[in-house]
Amino acid sequence: MAEEKEERMAMEEEKEERKAEAKPRKHKGKHDKPKPWDDESIDHWKIDKFDPSWNETGMLEVSSFSTLFPQYREKYLQECWPIVKGALKEFGVACELNLVEGCMTVSTTRKTRDPYIIIKARDLIKLLSRSVPAPQAIKILNDEMQCDIIKIGNLVRNKERFVKRRQHLVGPNSSTLKALEILTGCYILVQGNTVAAMGSFKGLKQVRRIVEDCILNKMHPLYHIKILMLKCELAKDPALANENWDRFLPTFKKKNVKQKKVKSKEKKPYTPFPPPQQSSKIDLQLESGEYFLTDKKKLARKWQEKQEKQAEKTAENKRRREEAFIPPEEVKKHGSHSPNADRHDDVSAIALSLKKKVKEFGKKKHAEKIDPQAYIAAVGKLSAKKKSEHRD
Fold this sequence. Notes:
The protein has helices at 2-22, 74-89, 117-129, 134-137, 159-170, 175-184, 201-215, 221-236, 281-288, 295-323, 339-363, 372-391; strands at 64-68, 93-98, 103-108, 146-151, 187-191, 194-199. It is mostly helical. The strands form 2 sheets. It has a 3-stranded antiparallel sheet with strand order 1-3-2, covered by helices on one side.
C-alpha cells in the first residue's frame, strides 16, 4: 500500500510539472510536442553535402532548362563545352549546345540523384551566357556557392549617365570592383546591362545593395567600401558581437553639387509670316551690275581687288616692322624739374602761406595790435633771399 501511494504521488508531481511547463505555451494540441530538431546543438544554417543514398530511385520526371547566348560567345562556348559537359556528368545531368538556334540546354537523366542540381545547372548556363569564364561558372555546382544576376539596364533612362555610373562601379583599372570582391567574398562581373555575382547569400545581398545604390546615384561604392571595412574590424572584437554597430558606422550626407546653368535662348516674338528669302548669288550679281560685265572686265575687276588687298597687307606688315624701331617715351624723374616749374611751385607755395597768415592775423586782430602790412613785407624779403640763394 505504501509503495502504491508513493507511485501515485510521483505521478501527480510529474503531471503538475508538465502543467507548469505547458502554461507559457499559447497553443495546445496534438502537434504541441517536443520535436527532434528542436535541439540547441544542431546548427540549422549548416548546409550538408548531398548523399546519393538519400535518393536511390532517382528522378521520376525529366526536368530541363534552356537559355540563349549571344553570337560573340559562340566560339568560346564551343571550346570550353567539354569541360562543362564533364562537370555536369559527375552529377548525372545531360547538357547540349545548339549552335544553330544559339541556345544551351540542361536536363536530368536516370542517373540524377540530387533534385536541386538541375537548378544549379540552370544557373551555370545562365552565367556562361553572361560572359562568366567557364572555370569560374562551374563553381556554382558547389552547395556553398550561389549566384545572382542583377539587371541594371532599366534603372537609368539617360544612357550617358548609365555608362558613367557603371564606370564608378568598376573604378580605375577595376580597383573598386576588386575591393568589393575582397570585402564581400563574391565574384563580380559587370557586363553590358547586367552584373553577375557569385558567392554566399550574405555577400550577394551586400553586392545587390551596392550595385543598385551606385546606379540609382544614392551612394558611391567607395563609401560602401569604407563601411564594409569598418564592419570587418568590428567583427574581430568578440565584445561587440551582440551589439548594434550603427553608432560606429559613418553617415554620409548627399551633397548637392552646383550645376552649370544652361543659358536659355531669348524667345523672339512670334510672327505668322515666314522669313524673307535670301538673295541668291545671281541676284547679288544683278544688284552690283557684275552680271552684265564681260569676262575680260570681270577678270580685270578681280585682279584690281586682289592688288588692293595685297597693298593693304603690305602696308600693315610694314607698319608692324616699323613698330620695333619707334623709341619708347622717356619717363620723367621726380628729382629733375625744370627751373620754370620750380619758380611756379615757389610762387604758389608763398601765396598759400600768405593766405594762411592773413587768416591767423585776422583772428588775433582784437587780441594784439600787429601791423599786417609790415609783416607781409618782411616775409617777402625772406622769400627774395631764398630765390637768390637757389640761383647761386
